[in-house]
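Researcher: Please predict.
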Amino acid sequence: DSRSKRRSDSREDRKKKRSSSSRHKSRRDRDGSDEESEKSKTLDDPLADPALSKKFVWKKKVEQDRAKGLSRAERDQIERERRAEAERELESLRKRRELREIEHAQREEELSRQRREQEQEKLGDWERREEEFHLVQAKRRAEIRIKNQRPKPIDVLAMNLRLANEPMRDEEVVELGMMRVDTDEPHRMVECLDEGEARELAQDVEMYLSLENIAQNVEFWENMAIVVNVHVDQLRSGRAGMRSEVRGILDGKSLGELAELEADVQAKLAGEQGAVDVDYWGQVREELGVEKAKATLAEMHADILERRLQRVRKARDGSSADTATGSADTDRAEPTRDGSEVEQRKRRRLEELQRRILEQQPTSESPRPSDETRDVSQEMFEAEM
């Protein structure tokens, strides 16, 4: 019995040991899994490490400072200075980074601006070429219509300007010089147009004005646009052919006299000469603008016809036109003369030029109305020979 009892006790003890061992093992496994879980969390999210909230103590450094005899207050002061220096360095690095970002943005903006300018230059160059192409085509159409004896009013004006102001080969000058020329002043040609013709001429003038790049030609088309648009307005309102009192006063005045009168009218409207009739003097100012445009066109037309005649003769004969231009140079070289006298001399010069051209008309040819284009190509070559 005693042996069986001891065997039973030994079995009980072994069971208890096994049970205790299994409990310890399960606890170790559980603790190990918790540690592994914490480690995995730390690896996945380094900021989840609880040690981050604790102040780091460099124990070896503390021991070295103690060996040097530094107190805790001195160590704290050194640490604060080190932190302040680190913060200053970080701030400096941050500013340098911001500066680099700004410089990078500026470089990118500059490169973008340069690319836009290059594209704009290319586009502008194409636009300029397109305008030149349209201008050349317009002048070529005018040349063809004149050759076919069906010129429009704009064609005669454009051809005169082309022969007077634009660089051309002698062969082209001779060929184009054989074409028709209108000796009437441009504003008188406009007065003979009906509303449809005037509207068409106004559109043609605006087209040339938008495409032209020679200063003298631009000035001519600007004044021409003023005269044509006023004539269109008069035709539309039914006032064409009616002469106002103001226009009657301004007729026959030279460009210099009109400029003086315009300055006087501006002074009146500005109140420098007391109370005035604003409506009346406003109408005078409008009429002055139109009359100045007409006077400018008349002066330019005289010079254009003379330069055309001289250039055609020079291109045909291959000789200098100094003799023919002597009188014109004399007229221009008298700045001390009275303005009205100079204008009268210019008008007489235009009349003389017209007379020389018209006298060369063939006698067998019936006279044409003054508002039609006259064929004086051959007469221009034979003038003053």
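Model: The longest helix spans residues 72-147.
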